[in-house]
């Protein structure tokens, strides 16, 4: 295996570089490259992995030039700077480090809240200027005040518990916050409008999505208490800067603590000229501790993926642990082969896919196996597809996918059965992995068999009549096609029958046509499997 190559294009701790090198990965540490779009575009084609923070914008254009890229690792939480659908379509895994900087960011939100409440930056500047303006900087106490937390996930809940420690009453709005979790945290769960109308301070901790963009705008501010203070340590774009600036000028909003901006780096901004606004340059995650955490974690995760196929904290792919990866590998192969079989024989548009996990296969990572099945299924139509891109591509095509799990029901410890409904037919194929670690077909069209899977195969459907073995054996043999393995099956004597032949080399079309001339042979298809 050639050594994977990783580019670090943002200011990550050098711990990341050390870890990549120690794990045997070639690493280029170019912390300023992320800011230079053109240089990054020119360089990206040489790398298998890209490690970033928020300064590198991973656009569709960049992904289009990333011919070798397999993984993007975000040393941090927010991945709104990565075009995830574009990465998924190209089969590139996007992973983040969901906990490494959350305490640090929560602490920054609390710091900004206190700094705004007591106008510490302005008081500092004034004092250093020799003004001693004691009465100008009258503050507000936070004890007993209501803090509204919008988004009560990792960071929001840390902020909430810290604020409770500071004797604040916390109101939380988060559509995914359960009553039980709210009780455990000691917060009052409320709807957004109630949070707006009752809070003295409001802090934002949601990701930036189409739903959360401008969650605080003029309309939201109008519902708030006069003199409310707003803290944004999550993402610029959650708060309309123009509307906030107006509300600060009118006095409706008494102060704001802003770490993140609609456009970053923010060198000019409508908020900069307004007093009672405390600004920091996206420092939420910037502590030595957090930066060590996220650098270490992202480098370990990316190395595990590039070297061992383990997937953790991926946004666009189910997790696969390093221990699980080798166990799962033959079943991933089996799943791909099952999908590939149907994908190669299907003649009309696929409408529905059902994957049945029987016995021990139901206890494996079926999400990953389903992704592999889908990749095999659509690879005959879209060559450049893998476990990351297959689910999104299948979804884009409107195909309904379902998974069924059940206890062991037959002679095998477990097997996978794929049933695919297309416009004019329903097809099914089942397989398992034998003790030798190799996948086998055990059923096709409901007909039992035990077929070894080779790279080149021929699949025929035929009438159950005498002489089929002779027809296939003689026609192939007289045309120089060597058969490695031959499997026959039928649903009942004289009924539907199939044959599956594992051949040494691809069978030329003119030889298949000769086979097709026999009236007993209903169809003959060449198949290729990546085994
Ligand atoms: N300033 C900085 O340097 C940093 C900023 N961040 C930002 O903080 C954000 C939150 O991080 P975590 O708490 O770790 O994420 P998380 O995923 O644990 O929590 C986000 C919460 O927001 C909730 N949410 C989603 N849509 C919502 C909506 N419409 N209204 C209310 N709640 C909604 C989710 O249910 C979830 O509980 C990140 O997405 C990132 O953008 C994160 C780290 C550092
Ligand atoms: O982790 C996040 O979401 C952050 O916003 C931190 O950003 P940064 O890594 O400091 O550029």
Automatic annotation (TrEMBL):
One of its GO terms (biological process) is L-serine biosynthetic process. Residues 457-531 form the ACT domain. Keywords: Amino-acid biosynthesis, NAD, Oxidoreductase, Serine biosynthesis. CDD domains: ACT_3PGDH-xct (cd04902), PGDH_4 (cd12173). Pfam families: 2-Hacid_dh (PF00389), 2-Hacid_dh_C (PF02826), PGDH_inter (PF19304). Its EC number is 1.1.1.95. GO terms for molecular function: NAD binding; phosphoglycerate dehydrogenase activity. Pathway: Amino-acid biosynthesis; L-serine biosynthesis; L-serine from 3-phospho-D-glycerate: step 1/3. It catalyses: (R)-2-hydroxyglutarate + NAD(+) = 2-oxoglutarate + NADH + H(+); (2R)-3-phosphoglycerate + NAD(+) = 3-phosphooxypyruvate + NADH + H(+). InterPro entries: ACT-like_dom_sf, ACT_dom, ASB_dom_sf, D-2-hydroxyacid_DH, D-isomer_2_OHA_DH_cat_dom, D-isomer_DH_CS, D-isomer_DH_CS1, D-isomer_DH_NAD-bd. NCBIfam families: PGDH (TIGR01327). PANTHER family: D-ISOMER SPECIFIC 2-HYDROXYACID DEHYDROGENASE FAMILY PROTEIN (AFU_ORTHOLOGUE AFUA_6G10090) (PTHR42789). Catalyzes the reversible oxidation of 3-phospho-D-glycerate to 3-phosphonooxypyruvate, the first step of the phosphorylated L-serine biosynthesis pathway. Also catalyzes the reversible oxidation of 2-hydroxyglutarate to 2-oxoglutarate. Belongs to the D-isomer specific 2-hydroxyacid dehydrogenase family. This is D-3-phosphoglycerate dehydrogenase.
């Amino acid at each position: 295996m050639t050594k994977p190559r990783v580019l670090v294009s943002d200011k990550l701790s050098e711990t990341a570089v050390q870890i990549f090198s120690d794990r045997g990965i070639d690493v280029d540490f170019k912390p300023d490259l992320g800011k230079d779009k053109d240089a990054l575009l020119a360089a990206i084609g040489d790398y298998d992995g890209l490690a970033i923070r928020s300064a590198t914008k991973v656009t569709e254009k960049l992904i289009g030039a990333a011919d070798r890229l397999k993984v993007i690792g975000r040393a941090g939480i927010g991945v709104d700077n990565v075009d995830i659908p574009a990465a998924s379509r190209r089969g590139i895994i996007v992973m983040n480090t969901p906990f490494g900087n959350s305490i640090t960011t929560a602490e920054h939100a609390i710091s900004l809240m206190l700094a705004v409440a007591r106008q510490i930056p302005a008081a500092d500047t004034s004092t250093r200027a020799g003004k001693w303006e004691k009465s100008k900087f009258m503050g507000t106490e936070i004890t007993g005040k209501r803090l509204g937390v919008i988004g009560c996930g990792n960071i929001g809940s840390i902020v909430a518990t810290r604020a409770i420690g500071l004797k604040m009453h916390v109101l939380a709005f988060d559509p995914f916050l359960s009553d039980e979790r709210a009780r455990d945290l000691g917060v009052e769960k409320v709807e957004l409008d109630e949070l707006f109308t009752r809070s003295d301070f409001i802090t934002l901790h949601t990701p930036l999505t189409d739903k959360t963009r401008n969650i605080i705008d003029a309309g939201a501010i109008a519902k708030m208490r006069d003199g409310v203070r707003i803290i944004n340590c999550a993402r610029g774009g959650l708060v309309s800067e123009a509307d906030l600036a107006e509300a600060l000028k009118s006095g409706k909003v008494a102060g704001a603590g802003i770490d993140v901006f609609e456009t970053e780096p923010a060198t000019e901004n409508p908020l900069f000229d307004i007093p009672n606004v405390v600004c920091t340059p996206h420092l939420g995650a910037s502590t030595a501790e957090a930066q060590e955490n996220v650098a270490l974690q992202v480098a370990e995760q990316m190395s595990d993926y590039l070297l061992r196929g383990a997937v953790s904290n991926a946004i666009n792919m189910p997790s696969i642990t390093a221990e699980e990866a080798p166990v799962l590998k033959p079943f991933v192969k089996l799943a791909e082969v099952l999908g590939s079989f149907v994908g190669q024989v299907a003649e009309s548009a696929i409408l529905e896919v059902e994957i049945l996990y029987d016995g021990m296969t139901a206890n494996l990572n079926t999400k990953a196996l389903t992704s592999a099945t889908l990749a095999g299924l659509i690879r005959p139509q879209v060559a450049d597809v893998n476990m990351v891109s297959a689910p999104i591509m299948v979804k884009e095509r409107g195909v309904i996918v379902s998974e069924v799990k059940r206890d062991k029901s037959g002679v095998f410890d477990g097997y996978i059965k794929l049933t695919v409904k297309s416009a004019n037919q329903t097809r099914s194929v089942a397989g398992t992995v034998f003790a030798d670690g190799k996948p086998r077909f055990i059923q096709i069209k409901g007909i039992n068999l035990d077929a070894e899977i080779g790279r080149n195969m021929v699949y025929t459907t035929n009438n159950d009549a005498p002489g089929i073995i002779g027809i296939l054996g003689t026609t192939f043999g007289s045309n120089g096609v060597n058969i490695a393995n031959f499997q026959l099956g039928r649903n009942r004597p004289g009924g539907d029958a199939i044959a599956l032949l594992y051949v040494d080399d691809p069978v030329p079309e003119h030889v298949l046509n000769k086979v097709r001339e026999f009236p007993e042979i209903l169809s003959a298809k060449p198949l290729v499997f990546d085994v």
